[in-house]
Amino acid sequence: MNFEIGHNVKFYKDLTKQYVVLATRNQDLNTDFLNSKVEKFTIKNLEKLAESNLSVLVGFHYKIGEIIGYEDGLCIIGNFENAFEDDLQF
């Protein structure tokens, strides 16, 4: 898999928008994952997303969130999308 949680990507549906990878088929976004990481993520309310055990829909490779703005240096996530490997690019 080419992308990891926290990577900023573009999605084939609209290449003018920015998205962030929130989960992969190999790694859900949950509190265990956050607690195991040393690096700091710049996603607003990431802990709340992790508490919901955000995962990828069966059959897809990634769960991504549209970046709709920034506040205090953190990206604000809007709509979620499920994506395949070939749907994304850096």
Shape: globular
**E-strand count:** 5
Radius of gyration: 12 Å
- Average of pLDDT: 94
Looking across the biggest beta sheet, what order are the strands in? 4-3-2-1-5
Number of helices: 2
Low-confidence stretches: none
The SS-based structural class is mainly beta
The level of helicity is 10-25%
Distance between the termini: 13 Å
**How can the largest sheet be summarized?**
5 strands, antiparallel
Residue share in β-strands: 35-45%
| Succession of helices and strands | EEHHEEE
Concise summary:
Helices cover 13% and strands 41% of the residues. It is mainly β and 90 residues long.
Describe the structure.
This protein is mainly β and 90 residues long. It has helices at 31-36, 46-51; strands at residues 8-11, 14-24, 62-71, 74-83, 88-89. Strands 4-3-2-1-5 form a 5-stranded antiparallel sheet, with no helix packed on it. A hairpin with a 2-residue loop joins strand 3 (62-71) and strand 4. The protein is globular. The protein starts with 7 loop residues before the first strand and ends with a strand. The mean pLDDT is 94.
